[in-house]
Amino acid sequence: MTDFPFDALVFGPADVDLSRSPLAGKIDAETYVLGAFNPGMTRLANGHLLLMVRVAEALKQPIRDGHIHAIRWADSAYLLDAWPLGLVDTADPRKFLMRGGGWRVLALNSLSWLLPVELDADGRTVVAVHYDRAIAPAASYQCYGVEDARISRVGGRWLMTTCSVSPERHCTTLYSSDDAVAWTLEGIVLDHQNKDMLIFEGLVGGRYWAQTRPLGDLYFAYPPGSEWRSGPSINLASSPDALHWKPCDRPGIRPHAATVSTARMGGGAPPILTEQGWLTLWHGVEPSGVVGLYRTYWSILDRDDPSVTVRTDHAALLEPAPALTAPLADRLYLDGVVFTTGIADAGDHYVVASGEADLACRITHVPKARFA
Questions:
Q1: Is residue 162 part of a domain?
Q2: When you count CB atoms within 10 A of the terminal residue's CB, does the N or C end of the chain come out lower?
Q3: Does any domain span residue 81?
Q4: For position 29, which CATH number holds?
């Protein structure tokens, strides 16, 4: 096990009641919970913690009659689409790839929606599950699901970014709330493929700031001998209103040539302000197998200029924990992944929320001394 004071799975697939799912009774097929993971997290007014859990709901029998099927939302209904098996590659358990063509075209093995799960103040125990407040697709750009919430409180307002998936675009959408209970969809805020937009929990120079992670099909090489490695990196953007974002001219956190463990990287928990600067937890991916090995790392950014990294550490803060998922071995379809998505101050430690193995929600108590 780990050496943290508390490190456990607190919510998983077996804890989801699919009879109360947004899809319940609306699709002519049996489904199951592929994963309940990657929870955005914030502290509520009552002192409890709120997880916005990504529930990936998948078909129990996606392959039949020589076709593979997937779920799609359209005009308040859930539909089943079918593709001939000969046209797809199913090597990745989370998605399938359309063969042929000049670029990658994917479809998903599940449709994701967000489930609010209320925990006690230290994140150890589930207090309530709010099915009546679940967030499901509501626009055509979300027809394949709403994924990976990140929640930031800026002033007295909560902002939640999500990844919305559709054939139209792979975009970042924003929800806002005055209490983190009732959420309003504000629409698309980043119109390019971006899985990890994290809004800083506080203004910088009177403006909203965010970490972003745009993806592309190619990356240009750094010169020989550079301290940086080419690949997906964490960029920055700022906004006057959290709706209209301008990319920062300076780079953010980049893959370092000194280690292959962070050859690919992206945002984790929304940056929070500490005495040292902005503490940001992010994920690094070491190439391995189909998916890669995901770990959590940390950096301190300058409080007045977040493009400046004050301190960082090549050693991982969190590693995948097979001992935690061992009791769920019959549900495990992926390993080597811890994907941090939230952080909350709890006095002498931080409560850190992560998705473990794309399967369940992990809560870890990290002493503040780890960042001293």
A1: yes
A2: C
A3: yes
A4: 2.115.10.20
State the Cα–Cα distance between residues 238 and 244, nearest whole angstrom. Answer: 8
Judged against a pLDDT cut of 80, whether residue 221 lies above it is answered with: yes
DSSP β-ladder status, 349-356 and 338-345: antiparallel
pLDDT(101) > 80: no
| Residue 75 CA neighbour count, 13 Å, CB half | 0
- Residue 199 resides in a domain: yes
Tens of pLDDT along 305-331? 999 999 999 999 999 999 999 999 999
Residue 150: domain span: 6-371
pLDDT in tens, 104-147: 888 998 999 999 999 999 999 999 999 999 999 999 999 999 99
State the Cα–Cα distance between residues 212 and 194, nearest whole angstrom.
Answer: 7
Average pLDDT over residues 243-249: 97
pLDDT at 1 over 60: no
Six-digit token pair at 279?
Answer: 């503490």
Q: Is 98 exposed, middle or buried (0-12, 13-18, 19+ CB in 10 A)?
A: middle
> How far apart are the C-alpha atoms of 24 and 26, rounded to whole Å?
5
Residue 69 domain-assigned?
yes
Count of domains for the chain = 1
